[in-house]
Recover the amino acids of this structure.
């Protein structure tokens, strides 16, 4: 799951995986907007065949939180 | 016959769907022999509208869907949940390359969300802006951004200028003059965003940046492309539309006040109509959402058949010029830098 999430983040935000750690904030550190976050989650959904609740996505602000949220759907 | 350009039209989007949408599509088909239309929408109403017309059936395809995105739907949730809606299905076709372009008069918010979530941005493009064409005294001005990103950064505005440069050249066939919307002409004027963006635009040697433009100069056609954040752009568009309607209403009322003015109205009617036609936004088609992996055109929510027909023509011009490929090439270079 981590690999899929990191790949999606790098692909959509055009960043390198070395820039991402547990505390990395999508908006403040990676310059993402709310739609970027949805786009990342949708790419992960497609890759893993899961469907994430929109309310859960809205609560996510860091990579660690995103990973934790996705693990609940695994 | 040369290769057909295939355009998906969201048949259920807008206040006048599917009547105006289907009518506009059929009219476009008759005016352009190199186009194929894919109507995406609910079976019964779309079939019923199509049955009213005779047309080349080889150049019309209907893709049936079971859901519709309403104006009141939450944009992101609608895109994620209504997967068999006319808008989402058309967007997926655009993403997959089964169509060359897409037109919708549906919810702006859903189109913005779907444009990014389903179609996706060109690599290197930070934000995808809406770029409506404002009719002006000298022709038309492209206003970027009119509603996509209210909190833009200087690098976003620089990218808007570059996208506007490409789009304008594709549609108008010449290099545009580009201005940044400001509250004065001097470089030191403006808010932080404008002051920070101005020197960056000056440094762009590949565009014809002419400096600041005040909103009052836009209707006169002071610049070909006006760049701003979406908050400013949206205020300009709404004021433009509102002012136009109010002036027209007042002129009409004034002309009807006395017998003499009524005679005058009769005499100027044709000239006035021709002038007003120049200021009809529907004549120019819709607003492209720039920087996506496919050409997406948003027309007004209350689009008439004429606006849909003109949007098809607009798509054909852009596709012929290879607009998406040009955007990809321009921003691929940016990424490499």
């Amino acid at each position: 799951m981590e690999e899929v999430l990191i790949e999606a983040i790098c692909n959509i935000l055009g960043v390198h995986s070395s820039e991402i750690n547990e505390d990395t904030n999508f908006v403040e550190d990676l310059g993402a907007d709310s739609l970027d976050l949805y786009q990342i989650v949708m790419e992960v959904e497609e890759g893993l065949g899961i469907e994430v609740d929109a309310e859960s996505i809205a609560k996510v602000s860091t990579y660690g939180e995103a990973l934790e949220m996705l693990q609940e759907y695994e | 016959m040369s290769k057909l350009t295939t355009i998906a039209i969201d048949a259920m989007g807008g206040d006048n769907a599917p009547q105006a949408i289907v009518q506009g599509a059929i009219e476009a088909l008759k005016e352009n022999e190199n186009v194929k239309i894919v109507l995406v929408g609910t079976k019964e109403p779309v079939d019923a509208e199509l049955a009213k017309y005779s047309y080349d059936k080889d150049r019309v395809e209907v893709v049936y869907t079971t859901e519709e995105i309403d104006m009141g739907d939450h944009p992101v949730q609608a895109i994620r949940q209504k997967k068999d809606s006319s808008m989402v299905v058309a967007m997926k076709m655009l993403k997959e390359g089964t169509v060359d372009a897409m037109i919708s008069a549906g919810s702006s918010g859903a189109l913005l969300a779907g444009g990014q979530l389903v179609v996706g941005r060109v690599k290197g493009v930070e934000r995808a802006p809406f770029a409506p064409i404002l009719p002006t005294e000298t022709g038309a001005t492209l206003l970027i951004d009119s509603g996509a990103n209210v909190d833009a950064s200087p690098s976003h505005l620089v990218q808007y200028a570059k996208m506007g440069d490409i789009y304008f050249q594709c549609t108008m066939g010449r290099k545009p003059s580009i201005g940044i919307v400001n509250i004065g002409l001097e470089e030191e004027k403006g808010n932080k965003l404008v002051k920070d963006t101005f020197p960056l635009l000056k440094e762009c040697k590949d565009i014809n940046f002419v400096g600041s433009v005040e909103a009052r100069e836009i209707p006169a056609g002071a610049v070909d492309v006006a760049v701003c954040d979406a908050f400013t752009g949206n205020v300009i568009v709404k004021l433009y539309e509102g002012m136009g309607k109010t002036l027209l209403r007042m002129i009409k009322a004034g002309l009807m006040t006395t017998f003499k003015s009524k005679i005058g109205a009769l005499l100027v009617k044709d000239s006035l109509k021709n002038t007003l036609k120049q200021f009809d936004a529907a004549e120019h088609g819709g607003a492209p959402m720039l920087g996506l992996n496919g050409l997406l055109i948003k027309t007004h929510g209350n689009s008439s058949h004429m606006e849909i027909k003109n949007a098809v023509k607009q798509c054909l011009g852009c596709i012929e010029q290879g607009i998406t490929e040009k955007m990809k090439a321009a921003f691929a270079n940016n990424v490499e830098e």
Observations:
- Chain A touches chain B at residues 14, 31, 33-36, 38-39, 42, 54 (CB under 8 Å).
- The radius of gyration of chain A is 11 Å.
- Residues 2-73 of chain A form a domain with the Non-ribosomal Peptide Synthetase Peptidyl Carrier Protein; Chain A fold (CATH 1.10.1200.10).
